[in-house]
User: What shape does this take?
Amino acid sequence: MMNRTINRKIAAGLVTASLVMTMLTASACTAASVDTATNTDGTVTTTVTTTQNTEISVSGNGATIEVTADYDEEAATVFTFTDSAVTAEDGEYTGYKIEGTDLTIKEAGVYVLTGSCADGSVTVKKGTTDVTLVLDGLTLTNAGDATTATAPLSINKSTGVTVIVKAGTVNTLTDSVYNNDDTYTENTEAENAVIKCKDGSQVVITGSGTLTVVSNGKNGIKSGTTDTETDAANPRDAFLTIAGPTIYITTTVNDAINAEQELNILSGSLTIDAADDAIHSDLLLNIGVENTAGPTIDIVSSVEGIEGATVNIYSGDISILSSDDLINAANSDLSNYSFAINIYGGTIFAYSTAGDGIDSNGTLTVYGGTVEIWTANTADNSPLDADGGIQLRGGTVLAAGGSSGMGERLSATQATITTGSTGGMGGFGGKGGFGGMSGAFGQQTGQTIAKGASVTVTDASGKVLYETTAPCNASYILFSSAGMTSGETYTINANGTAVTNGTASEQSQSGGFGGPTGGWGQQGGPNGESGQMPTPPSDGTFTPGQQGGPNGQMTPPDGNGQGGFRPGRPGSSNGNADSVHPNSQSI
Assistant: This one.
């Protein structure tokens, strides 16, 4: 039996053995040995060895990850699919069964799949490990009917499978509308996915060829959770890891990739058109490998883009278009869980037409990379929103939206500038965080950036620090970068014209960017001065806040200065948010 070895070369000083352990053993996914060695060139090689019969080398040192998936072609058994049969050319492995156009793998081995079939399937038997499936120009559809349709590729419980998409080949897997037992309740064969990886399955999809997944039933690729049934004394966790291939996934009903336990996307290229979530994990989701280029992910359509209970983004070139949240840390089935989104590197450009940008039910922390988030919604959705707080610790972040401000508290240990909506940012109000709107931190009113505008951030000398094109109107912008200096003046421009300028600062405030709905507390004065407590209505009850009016004045429903303030979070008694730089002017 051969071993599968994953080697990652990480620049000295940035050893990420813990990352590798997280990917393969944090959830008790498999019995694995981990060895770390320092090379003569100063790089570090981390080797993870598990019991698979294919050797895969994934290495990177600040460049594109090269994936080598080796197998013994002479020893492999080759299956050729046609519309009427599956024929076998035996190698050293004969643990299989053929019934018409359905193939079942029953024993360990290397099996090559090629040909074309309009109604067939491949199944890896429950409990079978050390299996390598090589996709070598395979076009496989499972058409079935309302009682027989199933997945083209089913990987059953407590299996260990490596799927190699052979270099230079194009492969397509497609299911039918009948592969959905929610809709076709009498179909006991439905697997609800094109590639179904069941509970306890530990699956790696690798190689450098091309794979297209077309889902007409429910999900594209589905991975399970812990298998406690096959061997109750030794529960086996599940994981799905993708490293290397070019994959196109289209779904018409549900998620493109859905994992119940652990999903790792290390490298390769993914293009996704999803009816619901593009990339989803109920628990752990890792994208990229630190200090490598990571994967290229292009989500061209989705409801939610990327979702997990814990989302770690280490590297990659990621673009997302969604109608709801772009990146989300949530799971309504979990209680007392520390939800988190951690961004360590990579480049992210994401645009939501109606939802939040990055939304965490716990914490959101940016340590590095370039993150650009746009949200078109003008209601209560925000470009950045985290119940447990937002921390900007490094990298470059541009967050812009049609709604004002951000949810929950912000802490930035690097220079940050912001521009608010109506009347500009300001009034860091009393007990409401950013309470009344003021004109001090930018004099614009109403819409500040128009859809399609060329947006730049420049320093006092006119040097362009960042440039992009706005995919939607925006009345709020936050820009934070390790390349800026606190106390220096910066300008946000639209189509070459200054929208506003101000002094960058490190920021920490506990009330959240309250935007135009203010807070319980002192209303910001017209020039950003410490404001006064608003006068309550005659019945003594403050009502939900309204949109800030000209010059930063709050405009209640009747327009006469009554009510219009929503309970907020603690600030300081002088109308400034706690720990905000005393001389800061946020754009």
Q: What stands out?
A: Residues 4-70 form one domain. Helices lie at 17-24. The mean pLDDT is 77. Residues 388 and 414 are 19 Å apart (CA to CA).
